[in-house]
Design goal:
This protein has helices spanning about 5-35, 40-45, 70-75, 95-100, 125-135, 150-165, 165-180, 185-190, 195-205, and strands at about 55-60, 60-65, 80-85, 105-110, 140-145. By secondary structure, the chain is α/β, with parallel strands linked by helices. The radius of gyration is 18 Å and the shape is globular.
C-alpha cells in the first residue's frame, strides 16, 4: 500500500474511532440526565442504539441501515439536517413523524439495486443522489437503504471516488459492510462509474474537496 493510501486509511479509521468514542460519551450524558443508577439497563441502551451498519462516511455524512423506532434517540443526537433514502418504497409514518419533529429534510432517490441478471442502478440516479449527499447545505446527513450494505455501499463507493481513494481501498470498504453478500455488480458499478458530471457540478459549487 502506498503512503498516500495508508494515510487515507488511517484517517478513516481514526475518524471512525473518535466518532464511536463521542457516541459513548453521549450515551453516558443521556443516562446521567435521566438519573439512571444502573447504566447497564438494557431498555435504555436499546432505545439509544444506532441503526445497523451505522458509521461516519466523511465530514458530517453518515450511513446506516433503515432506522427503526429504537434508533430515533441515537439519531436525534446527531442533529441531522437531512436524510437521503435510497429505497423506492413508501417511507413509514413513524419515521416521517420523527423527521418532522426533528426538522429533518427528507430526500428520496429510489434505486432498485444491482441484482443479476438485468437489474442495475442507473448512472444518472447515482449522480442525482451524489448531488444531494455531498452538498454541505444538507449536512449533517444520513444515507440509508434497507440494510445499509448494497445501495448505500454503491453511493459511498462513488463518494470515495470523488475523494481520490484507490479502487482497492474503496472495494475493501464496500466488502466490509456488504459481507457476507458482496455483489460483483455493485463493485463493477463503483469501478465503472463516470464521475465527470458530478465532479464538474461539485467543483463549480465549491463542494470539493470533501474534508473530514
Amino acid at each position: 500500500m502506498e503512503n498516500g493510501e495508508l494515510k487515507q486509511e488511517l484517517g478513516f479509521l481514526q475518524h471512525e474511532f473518535q466518532h464511536r468514542i463521542n457516541n459513548i460519551d453521549k450515551l453516558g450524558e443521556f443516562l446521567e440526565k435521566e438519573h439512571i443508577e444502573d447504566k447497564e439497563s438494557a431498555p435504555i441502551i436499546k432505545e439509544f442504539a444506532p441503526p445497523e451498519n451505522f458509521a461516519p462516511v466523511v465530514g458530517k455524512i453518515y450511513r446506516s441501515s433503515f432506522p427503526r423506532v429504537e434508533n430515533f434517540e441515537f439519531l436525534s443526537n446527531l442533529k441531522l439536517k437531512s436524510i437521503l433514502v435510497l429505497v423506492p418504497d413508501e417511507y413509514p409514518e413513524e419515521n416521517l413523524n420523527f423527521l418532522s419533529k426533528q426538522g429533518i429534510t427528507f430526500f428520496q432517490v429510489g434505486m432498485s439495486g444491482n441484482k443479476e441478471p438485468f437489474v442495475n442502478v442507473p448512472h444518472d440516479i447515482i449522480t442525482q443522489a451524489l448531488k444531494i449527499a455531498i452538498n454541505p447545505e444538507n449536512h449533517p446527513l444520513l444515507i440509508h437503504c434497507n440494510r445499509g450494505k448494497h445501495r448505500t455501499g454503491c453511493l459511498v463507493g462513488c463518494i470515495r471516488r470523488l475523494q481520490g481513494w484507490s479502487l482497492t481501498m474503496i472495494l475493501d470498504e464496500y466488502r466490509r459492510f456488504a459481507a457476507p453478500k458482496a455483489r460483483p455488480l455493485d463493485q463493477q458499478f463503483i469501478e465503472m462509474y463516470g464521475e465527470k458530471e458530478i465532479t464538474e457540478i461539485a467543483t463549480k459549487n465549491g463542494w470539493l474537496p470533501l474534508k473530514w
